[in-house]
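Let's practice the habit of predicting before peeking. Look at the sequence and jot down your guess about where helices and strands might fall. Then scroll down.
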Amino acid sequence: MAARTSTCPWTFKGKLKVFQNKTLRYHGTYAQLKTTRDLGLFSEREIKVGGVKVAPRRVLQTLYEPHVKLAGEKDVDALRVRSVGRKDDRPAEVVLEMLDYYDD
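Done guessing? Here is the structure:
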């Protein structure tokens, strides 16, 4: 089952008791993203602007993406998943770690 962190609450609804996601960002990112969210710019719900229907999230993505993609820089994602539960009525834990390097 493929899932993105943004859709995990729906993907794993009824399947997990606890889901925690921690993302490291640059200093000040939280305040900027909170303001952006508070303005409604993450919404997929279309609104009319100058007689044209647009989804605020699509507009934000179109404007934002060119500024965060640095020429010559390639992203790397570090992911660590820790699952704790029970198997065969005994405590169980699985830890998965992954480094995902940008691939042209």
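How did you do? The chain has one domain: 22-101.
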